[in-house]
Amino acid sequence: MEHYDIIITGGGGAGLSLINQLCESPLKNKKILLIDKEDKDVNDRTWCFWEASDGPFNDIVFHSWDELSFHSKDYSTDFNIAPYRYKMIRGIDFYQYVQHKIAAQPNISVLKAKVENVGSENNKALVSAAGKVFSADWCFNSILFRPIDKKQTNYLDQHFKGWIIKTEQPTFNPGAATLMDFRVPQDGESRFLYVLPFDQHRALVEVAIFSNNLLSSAAYDKILTQYIAKQITSEAYTVEHEEFGIIPMTDFPFSRSDDRVIHFGTAGGDTKASTGYTFWRIQQYTQKVVALMAKEGHPYIKENTFQKRFKLYDSTMLKVLVKDRLAGDDLFTYLFKKNPCLLYTSPSPRDRG
Ligand SMILES: Cc1cc2nc3c(=O)[nH]c(=O)nc-3n(C[C@H](O)[C@H](O)[C@H](O)COP(=O)(O)OP(=O)(O)OC[C@H]3O[C@@H](n4cnc5c(N)ncnc54)[C@H](O)[C@@H]3O)c2cc1C
Questions:
Q1: From residue 184, how far is each of 72, 187, 232, 243 by CA, in Å?
Q2: What is the pTM assigned to this prediction?
Q3: Distance of CA 25 to CAs 51, 204, 282, 335, 345, Å?
Q4: Is the beta carbon of 197 within 6 A of some atom in ligand 1?
Q5: 278 CA to middle of ligand 1, Å?
Q6: Which residue, among 49, 13, 349, 63, has the nearest Cα to 204 in the 3D structure?
Q7: Positive or negative CA dihedral for 325, 329, 330, 334?
Q8: DSSP for residue 160
């Protein structure tokens, strides 16, 4: 049986972030096997997140904004999030960035295969893939093997479709993004658009819905088309790229570890239940776990009181949405109105011309 120090199952956002951290740590010469069923050579997603300073992927940030706006039927605000910036990384840039690092490390092997199973036995992790069983001191797993129990927990799909559009006329302010715009028919769900401009002619326009009813592709397209016509431009534009995704928003009690197998990423509960944001949390987790492994030789991080408290807040907010105690547009409007961080809002970038 081939043995590794570390096997990483799933080489997407979490798996490659872990490799990136390992490459920058005292553990960089460990014998590592990364297994994924895909080549990760397509731009299948864009990641957005807040950061106040430089992060591990600063070199590949595609665009960032510090002027953001929020809109709902009866409330609009523009605000400046400095010293934070809302940053966007394209999936393909991220995959290639880490793949280059892997290519420079002969101790890291990559296997393209479907992982059938992960488990622990006699103080070793066992991973079945490509008709073989591999063993390791530790397996970091980001594949969701155990289905999320949607009935026993608060659960919503965050389903979204986005277009990168190119306009003929200069249309966008690349310094200002729309974070949430609820000014679309809600149909009893939480529906909002966001607009992330890259330059005067190009922006990612995306519709996101928190509900358990996926729409047809044409239905998302209709919402996008109507929103663009009403809020962005009546001029001609072309769609250069499309993305679609579903993020589970849940307070399901994900298990972080099963003995020698450590779960992380979406499969380890790193998705924020109330918003679906995951990328930054993956960076926090992988930084911490690699530091702990280097210092103490094990990856068991204890959840602190602060994390437990925020899990409770996320779960409460999700429950309000799931049980429909308050409509999503009203809930987010309330939060934006009450947030003391937004009291010091800057003049609207549009007002400033
Ligand atoms: C389109 C999209 C946009 C998103 N945008 C944002 C965003 O802006 N900000 C944010 O914070 N979060 C965002 N998310 C949520 C989250 O950050 C991503 O889902 C992120 O990719 C999660 O990382 P992960 O490693 O857990 O999952 P993934 O990145 O999906 O990685 C899992 C990997 O496991 C592999 N795999 C699965 N099953 C097997 C198997 N049996 N055998 C072998 N390999 C397998 C897959 O090929 C994949 O590479 C987005 C999600 C999607 C889908």
A1: 9, 9, 13, 20
A2: 0.94
A3: 22, 35, 17, 39, 40
A4: no
A5: 9
A6: 63
A7: positive
A8: E
Q: How far is the CA of 14 from the centre of ligand 1 (A)?
A: 7
Q: Which superfamily does CATH assign the domain made up of 3-70+89-146+258-301 to?
A: FAD/NAD(P)-binding domain (3.50.50.60)
The DSSP element (H or E) to which 153 belongs, if any, is none
97-133 confidence digits (pLDDT tens): 999 999 999 999 999 999 999 999 999 999 999 999 9
Q: Which residue spans of the chain are classified as CATH 3.50.50.60?
A: 3-70+89-146+258-301
CA–CA distance, 182 with 161 (Å, rounded to integer)? 15
Residue 24 tokens read as 């920058």
What pLDDT shows up at residue 223?
98
Residue 231 CA, ligand 1 centroid: distance in Å: 31
pLDDT in tens, 52-104: 989 889 999 999 999 999 999 999 999 999 999 999 999 999 999 999 999 99
For ligand 1, atom 23, name the residue with the nearest CA.
13
Ligand 1 close to Cβ of residue 266 (< 6 A): yes
| Numbered ranges of CATH 3.30.70 in the chain | 155-249
- Residue 316's SS3 state is helix
Q: How many angstroms separate the CA atoms of 93 and 59, rounded?
A: 10
Q: Tell me the DSSP string of 222-281.
A: HHHHHHIIIII-SS-EEEEEEEEEEEEEE-----SEETTEEE-GGGGT-S-TTT---HHH
In the three-class reduction of DSSP (H, G, I as helix; E, B as strand; rest coil), residue 5 is classed as strand
Assess if CATH 3.30.70 describes domain 155-249.
Answer: yes
Give residue-wise pLDDT tens across range 213-249: 999 999 999 999 999 999 999 999 999 999 999 999 9
Cα-Cα-Cα-Cα torsion 242, 169, 173, 159, nearest 10 degrees, comes to: -20
